[in-house]
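User: Some background: our group keeps a shared notebook of sequences we're curious about, and every so often someone picks one and asks for a predicted structure to add to the entry. Today it's my turn. The entry only has the sequence so far, pasted here. Could you supply the structure so I can complete it?
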Amino acid sequence: TGTLIDYALRLYGWPVRWKTRIDLFDPERRFIDMQLRGPYRYWRHVHEFEEVKEGTRMIDVVNYELPYGLLGSLVRTLFVRRSLKRIFSYRHQAITDIFGAV
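Assistant: Of course. Here's the predicted structure to add to the notebook entry:
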């Protein structure tokens, strides 16, 4: 809890600096990161881990808001929603490749 993480990445070719803080760290159950600086007006990502018969289920809950009012809503509809789906689909596949899945 309290760990700060600085990212430097590119979104659609634009350089973005992003800083998050781990607001909750409960090993074996969940951790939560909050954006302090970055492309979103608000970003809260809950990573949950649930023990199931087959192993561990990972659950992500992301709440976010974009800046710029109506323009931000348009960007969310045209780009962000699809990008987040692609990112989490990739992560799901990478984890499946590493750990296997039922």
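Suggested note for the entry: Strands lie at 4-11, 14-26, 30-37, 42-52, 55-65. The radius of gyration is 15 Å.
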